[in-house]
Every structure is written in C-alpha cells, then in structure tokens.
Design a protein that fits this description.
With 323 residues, the chain is of the alpha/beta class. It is built from eleven helices and eleven strands. The chain folds into two domains: 28-123 and 251-318, Bordetella uptake gene, domain 1 (D-Maltodextrin-Binding Protein, domain 2, 3-Layer(aba) Sandwich); 126-232, 3-Layer(aba) Sandwich (D-Maltodextrin-Binding Protein, domain 2). The protein has helices spanning 2-19, 42-58, 73-80, 94-103, 139-148, 163-175, 187-196, 206-214, 262-277, 279-287, 297-318; strands at 31-35, 62-66, 88-93, 115-123, 126-130, 154-157, 180-183, 201-205, 219-223, 251-257, 291-292.
C-alpha cells in the first residue's frame, strides 16, 4: 500500500513539474515591447503595427516602449536584464544583434547567450544604387570601371560599421575591387550627397532608395536579397548580376530574455505569425519596403548565429570601430 501511494505521489510530482512552466492564461497582463529606435522610425512603425494586432488577438495591451541609442543596443541591454516571464520582449534589428557587439567595447549583452529568439518579422534588403551620372549601368560595368580605375571611385555609407558600409566591404571582397569609403552621419546625409553626385555609389535599404529610384534621382544596379523585391521587380539580385550568394538583407525580429518558458515563446511565435498573415499588415509592411519573413524560434536562432559570424568577420576585416 505504501509503495502504491509513493508511486502515485511520484506520478503527481512529475505531472506538476511537466506542467509547471505552462501558462494557459498567458498573457494575463500587459506586455512591454521594447524598440531600440525613436518613434516614427521604420522599426518603430513595424513594431506598433504588429503590436496592435497581437493586442487585439490576446486581449492584453502590447505596449511599445522606445529605448533609442547605440544603434538599438540600449534596448537590447534592457531586455537582457528583464525578467524572463514573457512580459518583456524586444523588436531587434540585425545591426544591434550582429554588428554592434563587434563595434562597441561595452555593449551590455551577449547576443548568443542572453536572448530567446521568437521569430523574425521582416527583411528590409539593401540596394546597390548609383548616381545617374555614373559611367556604369550594371554591376558588370561597375566592376570593370572600378578595376580600370582602382581607388578612384568613392561610395557613401551611413557611418563606420553600419550595414551600408559593411555590405560594400563584402562587395569589394567578392568583386575584387578597390573603392574609397566616405562615411556620413546617418542615411539622410549619405543619400543627399549620392543624389547630388558628390559620391557616385552606395548601399541603402529599399525603404530609403525606392523613392529616389522611382524619381530618376538614382539608378539601381542590384538588390542584395536572395530573391527579387516586389517593389523593385525590374532590378536584378546581386547574385543574378554576377556575385553568387551575395546577400545583405537586414531583418527585424522579436526576442524574449533567455530563460523564458518554451511554451510562452511558442505562443508568441504563433501570435506573430497570425498578425503578419493579416492582409492589412502585409500591405503596410510592403509599403515601407519590408518583406514579411517569419520563422520558428530555432530557425531564427540559426539566422542570428550565422549573421553574427558573417558581419563580425566583416567588421574585423574593415577595421571599423565606434568606441
């Protein structure tokens, strides 16, 4: 009899342990969504768009809290210190996860150890653009011109160590060319000088470049995504243009702090997927040049690991430092 009671107690204990992490009532209070960029910036717009849909679906507010600074890293540092109970998350960008840790001495988090990936939301591919006066109209012509005039062709970027800088470093490596780097303080200044012809070449996102391409102020040579971008369907990928496997397509994705229960991660992953299935959300995302791209937590973790290694190598190769 005693043994039977012990077995029953052991079974009950096992069941309690199994389901202790499960929270069928989740969420039962507001969730904070940290965005490491100012209000009105593209990442903030995407965060609020999805937060609204998730709030409606769950019946609990998903409150966006802007923590701008250090290229999105201030927000990630705050998440790393937050409780891992599923009530604090972040919409992070590639730069803050994959390049900033290699650029800054004191970042406040470990990309590979401090977070529980949920899902990507979207990609915003970079586009290789040139001033209309540039003596080349294709990637092949650009490479030929650069090889015939080594070091004479300059390109703009939105700053040292930014993805627009590192993407061109990748281009230089794959194409075997020498180009002079002119860093600017932000995308607006870089684009202004590119449009005016003070520099002839540069990378920036679809969001930034598409209006300039449509107006004829810039010409597009290639998109740095795995497939063509719907809003620039006539522009070839850089792989199609002769640089096999060339991808520089920044993403934004959702993260919880490390240690958040797996069932909560799975529930939020499902809510994100439902949110982006909404035709209105997709239309809004496409309107700012974003390509919807969700995945499983494990798939997202693999993307983070791969990009951390890829962009970290390019930071080291370029010698870029911020502090």
């Amino acid at each position: 009899m005693r043994k039977t009671i012990d077995r029953i107690l052991a079974l009950l204990l096992a069941m309690i342990c199994t389901f202790a992490g499960a929270q069928p009532g989740y969420p039962d209070k507001p969730i904070k969504l940290i965005v490491g960029f100012p209000p009105g910036q593209a990442t903030d717009i995407m965060a609020r768009l999805v937060a609204d849909r998730i709030s409606r679906a769950t019946g609990q507010p998903l409150i966006v809290e802007n923590r701008p600074g250090q290229g999105g890293s201030i927000g990630l540092a705050a998440l790393a210190k937050a409780p891992h109970d599923g009530y604090t998350m972040v919409l992070a960008a590639t730069a803050s996860m994959a390049t900033n840790p290699h650029l800054y001495k004191n970042i406040g988090y470990d990309t590979l150890k401090d977070f529980a990936p949920i899902s990507r939301l979207a990609e915003v591919p970079l586009v290789l653009v040139a001033n209309p006066s540039a003596p080349f109209d294709t990637v092949a012509e650009l490479v030929a011109y650069a090889k015939a005039n080594p070091g004479k062709l300059s390109y703009s970027s939105s700053g040292n160590g930014t993805l627009s800088h590192l993407a061109m470093e990748l281009f230089k490596q794959q194409a075997g060319v020498s180009l002079a780097h002119i860093p600017y303080q932000g995308s607006v200044r870089a684009m202004t000088d590119l449009v005016s012809g003070n520099v002839l070449l540069g990378f920036d996102t679809v969001t930034v470049t598409a209006p300039q391409i449509a107006s004829g102020k810039l010409k597009a040579l290639g998109v740095a995504s795995a497939s063509r971008v719907p809003t620039l369907a006539q522009v070839p990928t850089l792989t199609e243009a002769g640089l096999p496997g060339f991808v520089a397509s920044p993403w934004v994705g959702f993260l919880f702090p490390k240690g958040t229960p797996a069932d909560i991660v799975a529930r939020m992953n499902a809510e994100i997927r439902k949110a982006v299935d909404d035709p209105g959300v997709q239309k809004s995302l496409h309107g700012i040049g974003a390509i919807v791209h969700t995945d499983t937590p494990d798939e997202f973790a693999q993307v983070i690991r791969s990009d951390y290694d890829k962009w970290g190598r390019l930071v080291r190769d370029s010698g870029a430092r911020v502090d």
